[in-house]
Amino acid sequence: MCHPRVSFKEGANVERTIPYHFCSSENFAHSLVKAFISFIACFAHMQHRSLASEGSQPTFVSTAWGDAGQTRPARKGGQPIAVPLGWPTVGSGKKTKPATYVYRSMRVTMDDMVSKFHPAHEMEPDSDEMRTQVAIAICEGSKFRSPFLHSSTSIFGARRFRAMGQALRGEQQQTMVRINIWQLYEEGQLAASDVIDMSCRKGQGHFFQKGPGGYGTYVEDRFAEMLQHANKAEEVVLKWRGSIPTWAFEVAYVHDLLFMGSL
């Protein structure tokens, strides 16, 4: 039976290697039991890691998301921080809550950790030019290297985004990660304007407030296509590719269902 292995860092200098047991074998029942034990061990490790950051996850005091002065994230042992207008959300109806994580299928070349200059870096966050660059990146991002880090509000959206990349560029080897955008915002490493929610109509309307005809020819001509791409991938656009610290990326283990430690 084959036993490929997955490594992740634990603490500052300790690296642990876990066998990945989901390989075909004649003794399937034995493999399944061993896989279950590995899953439980990984889950316990994840729970241990999450205790320190548990208080940094945003929750609701009010149910009216997006209304200034009403929605606040409550922290254990800390002062409440307002959820910015236009912040990505997960869930629906009364279960809607501000997103803590976004997800991305990342190339194994670690290209997402490399910063390369792009004219968008020098544009004003609220400018029409910036909105045009976001539209171009969503519509054309699979054809060239986007300056933005494209992510999704769910694993399923990230998988659909990965499928588009595989179809256009033939990419096969990729790693699913999640990014703790709330902690990045809370620690001042992401500004509210660095997180552009294109995953739903409310987020899209918040960013493109003037509608399709208010930002020039490109946005007007490609607006419907842009929304189609963004809706399919449940897209959240982050500034910038190559500028987000590696500790904010957690690598998926066991079919994207469990996240084990930072890169």
Record keyword descriptors for this entry.
single chain, 3-stranded antiparallel beta sheet, 263 residues, 2 domains, 19% strand, 4-stranded antiparallel beta sheet
Structural write-up:
The protein is built from six helices and eleven strands. 29% of the residues are buried. It has helices at residues 28-50, 128-140, 155-169, 181-186, 201-207, 217-233; strands spanning 5-10, 14-19, 89-90, 97-98, 101-107, 149-152, 174-180, 195-197, 235-238, 249-253, 258-262. It has a four-stranded antiparallel β-sheet. Strands 6-9-8 form a three-stranded antiparallel β-sheet. Mean pLDDT is 75; it is low at 1-26, 36-55 and 59-74. It has 263 residues and is of the alpha+beta class. Helix content is 31%, strand content 19%. It starts with a strand and ends with a strand. Strand 3 (89-90) and strand 4 form a beta hairpin.
Major β-sheet strand ordering? 5-7-10-11
Classification by helices and strands: alpha+beta
Helix and strand run: EEHEEEHEHEHEHHEEE
Q: Can you count the beta strands?
A: 11
How would you sum up the major sheet? 4 strands, antiparallel
Q: Note the gap between the termini.
A: 28 Å
Query: How many structurally independent domains?
Result: 2
Compute the gyration radius: what is it? 20 Å
Mean pLDDT score: 75
Secondary structure: helix percent? 25-40%
Indicate the proportion of strand residues: 15-25%
Question: Low-confidence runs (pLDDT<50, min 5 residues)?
Answer: 1-26, 36-55, 59-74
Can you tell me the overall shape? Answer: globular
Helix count equals 6
